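Deliverable D4.2, example record:
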Amino acid sequence: MKQRIITGVVAAALFVPIVFYGGLPFVLLTYFLATIGLYELLKMRNLTIFSVYGLLSTLFLWVILFPKQYTHVLSTFNYSKTELGIAFILLLLAYTVITKNRFTFDDVGFSIISAIYVGIGFYFFIETRNAGLVYIFYSLFMMWATDSGAYFIGKATGKTKLWPEISPNKTVEGSIGGVACALIVAILFVLFSNINATILSLMGITVVLSVFGQIGDLVESAFKRHFNVKDSGKILPGHGGILDRFDSLLFVWPLLHFFHLW
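Output generated by the structure prediction step:
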């Protein structure tokens, strides 16, 4: 617990000022976090980012992450994000031939899906910050409340297993408790912030986001169980890897955008 607290304090001291500042430093931070996330996923499958296919996968990820406010840079070269993404997919497929199938079609599929999974979530992290700090903090506090509520309420009252094949410690009671705690956060944000929503609409959105945030957590748990690893990485002592910390939010940020709160 002591290690978790120390890591949390240090990470917050580095993370929060950059989130407040925004702009290019925030974009670069997001690129760093996403790249580590891709590294963690590839490592689960015994693939390395420090390779030709790893470089191609990383460049594909960076194309997905490319923020809307900088697309004019691509337009000067008469290319779009879609065109560049297709190019990197074709190069990954071609690499299976160059390696005489040592890098297989399955590896290509895993690399592409990994980049898309991580890239889409972190791309909408950038878009959420561009919409305003209030939406970043709403998403963070809402998921922290969900996670904390699910843990403590599940520990106190949990009897019915939620999905034991994937995460044996999670319970239905804890999951419902997490949603209830998230709703408290939603009400507080409507009352004490300038978030663009009524209480009823934000409560409805929060229920969906809280549920899908928990699904995002289970998705990463399924990855780890499939590949027989405890944590996605070790970059955050006491917490695990980047994916261990952002798995829920990788589902929340795109959905938050789809609700058109801003």
